[in-house]
Design a protein that fits this description.
The chain has two domains: 4-120, Rossmann fold, CATH 3.40.50.720; 125-298, Dihydrodipicolinate Reductase, domain 2. 29% of the residues lie in helices and 24% in strands. It is built from nine helices and 17 strands. Residues 130-265 form the GFO/IDH/MocA-like oxidoreductase domain.
Length: 374
């Protein structure tokens, strides 16, 4: 396989970072951008030096495209991905992989029957920040992992997004918009989830757009905007997660993992780099003494790029004939975890997660996204 041709469907806000990153990888070339709004597709193509633009159908029919990057809204992720498979293309989809398990299962069966791959964001867990921490945990810096805590709390995307309404509709909210980052990280570290309990609340029935041409417009809130989620893993380990669009205090990117011989802080799972550091248990503590626990920083290894790293790893895996890491199966398991949390928040009961996946492998320490390998 030579340089792989990439077609992008969806030219919204997130397409900027994809186009910038994908065009920096020597193994990939973006050859066409498509959108329902062809003028928007043209603007993004011209901005990033892509020669062709058009509709989604134009991208699907382009003979130079081997992989489709699906950047459409979550409600049509499965529909667009299935169309890509039907066109004979591999698919990389933004998160979540879909909004219902039946649709995702149809997609994965179609891909398997066609001998094609499906990859799913987030691929932040492939970045050097998260992978540095993952390798340290595997090497035993905290002993046997026991439990984790994650936090994402913010005032909400209506503060900064010019059209935030879709983030407050079914299939979005903090659970489905931000949950994929945190639950993918937890599954990558602690293995598949067995059951989930959650409680949720909606702080306000209406919210107001704060910026852009529609500032001042009010819209209905259709989903919980704060959730507390408890996940129990097949291994018996546990995690507690806060996901909120209602907090005056901006506090996000918190991932802590505690083990038998220490605790580690892990970079924000919505980024590709960041600090990893751990502490060891105190040996003694007398009444009145300070909790003096020095942090031991771990040097980050690997080139920092951004979104699209998972697509690159998938393309190289196809060439090598091995499984890729940010797989459709991983995306489906994480989706089931989030659906279980959503159900539990309405029923006040633990919900069993029926699916399971093998352990998520690490990225090789010598993986260089900026090398030409194909």
């Amino acid at each position: 396989m030579s340089v792989v041709g990439v077609g992008i469907i969806g030219s919204g806000v997130i397409s900027d970072t994809y186009l910038a990153n994908l065009n920096s990888f020597p193994d990939l070339e973006v050859v066409i951008v498509g959108d329902l709004n062809v003028d928007r597709a043209r603007a993004q193509a011209e901005k990033h030096g892509v020669a062709r633009w058009g509709t989604a159908a134009d991208v699907l029919a382009d003979p130079d495209v081997q992989v489709i990057v699906n950047l459409t809204i979550p409600a049509v992720h499965v529909e667009v991905s299935i169309a890509a498979i039907a066109a004979g293309k591999h698919v990389w989809t933004e998160k979540p992989i879909g909004l219902d398990l039946e649709g995702v299962d149809t997609l994965l069966r179609a891909a398997d029957a066609a001998g094609l791959r499906v990859g799913s964001a987030p691929d932040t867990v492939l970045g050097p920040g998260f992978q540095t921490a993952k390798r340290a945990i595997a090497q035993g810096v905290i002993g046997e992992p026991l439990f984790a805590q994650t936090t994402f709390q913010t005032q909400g995307p209506d503060l900064w997004h010019p059209n935030p309404q879709f983030l407050f509709t079914p299939g979005a909210g903090p659970l489905f918009d931000m949950g994929p980052y945190y639950f993918t990280a937890l599954v990558s570290l602690l293995g598949p989830v067995d059951r989930v309990a959650a409680t949720g609340m909606k702080a306000r029935e209406e919210r107001e757009i704060r910026t852009g041409p529609n500032a001042g417009t009010r819209f209905a809130v259709q989903v919980p905007t704060t959730l507390q989620v408890l996940t129990v893993f097949e291994s018996g380990r546990q995690a507690q997660s806060t996901l909120s669009f209602d907090s005056a205090l901006e506090r996000h990117g918190v991932v802590e993992l505690h083990g038998t011989e220490g605790s580690i802080v892990i970079p924000d799972p919505n980024t590709f780099a960041g600090r990893s550091a751990f502490v060891k248990p105190l040996t003694t503590l007398r009444d009145g003494e300070a909790f003096d626990q020095p942090w031991i920083d771990i040097d980050q290894q690997g080139a920092v790029v951004g979104r699209g790293l998972g697509l690159l790893e998938m393309v190289r895996a196809i060439t090598a004939g091995r499984p890729h890491i940010a797989s459709g199966e991983l995306g489906r398991h994480v989706l089931e975890v989030m659906l279980a949390a959503d159900e539990s928040s309405r029923t006040d009961e633990f919900v069993t997660v029926a699916s399971s996946i093998p352990p998520v492998p690490p990225v090789p320490a010598d993986f260089d996204p900026l090398a030409r390998t194909l």
